[in-house]
Amino acid sequence: MKWFLLLAAFFALNLSAADVTGTWKGSADTPNGKVERTFVFKSDGAKLTGETSSEMLGKSTIEDGKIEGDTLSFNIKVKFQDNEMTLHYTGKVSGDEIKFHVEGDQGISLDYTAKKLS
């Protein structure tokens, strides 16, 4: 019984946060065409760090990154046409894919699908 409890605790800890460490490439369809973004994640338990980059908005550092089970969330700051805004990402991990929903200041709303590259 003691071993069973130890094994159950071990598996519960390992299942508590998806490991998304690595490089992911995502795309979203917008009224102005397809937008691509690369994500480089580092996960440490429930903490998520890293950076993202896109051709249109450049490179951004991940802030307030969290992973809970298969759900992750983080914010990035971007500058577009001399306006700085914060984008709020929430995502659901399923194998080598993450489905993101992005909400931004000024009413921006996008859905990205990202695939793991490495």
What distance lies between the first and last C-alpha atoms, to the nearest angstrom?
Answer: 39 Å
Unreliable residue stretches? 3-14
In CATH terms, what is the fold-level topology? Answer: Lipocalin
Instruction: Please give the CATH class.
Output: Mainly Beta
What order do the SSEs take from the amino end to the carboxyl end, as H and E? HEEEEEEEEE
**What is Rg?**
16 Å
Number of strands: 9
Tell me the name of the CATH homologous superfamily: Quinohemoprotein amine dehydrogenase alpha subunit, domain 2
Which structural class fits the helix and strand makeup? mainly beta
What is the domain tally? 1
Can you list the strand order of the major beta sheet? 1-2-3-5-6-7-8-9
Share of β-strand residues:
over 45%
Helix content: 10-25%
Label the CATH architecture.
Beta Barrel
Question: Keywords for this structure?
Answer:
single chain, 118 residues, mainly beta, Lipocalin, eight-stranded antiparallel barrel, 1 helix, 9 strands, 12% helix, globular
Q: Could you please describe the fold and organization of this structure?
A:
The chain is mainly beta and 118 residues long. The protein has one domain: Beta Barrel (Lipocalin). It is 12% helix and 65% strand. It has one helix and nine strands; from the N terminus they run H-E-E-E-E-E-E-E-E-E. An eight-stranded antiparallel barrel has the order 1-2-3-5-6-7-8-9. The longest helix has 14 residues. It is globular and about 35 Å long. The termini are far apart.
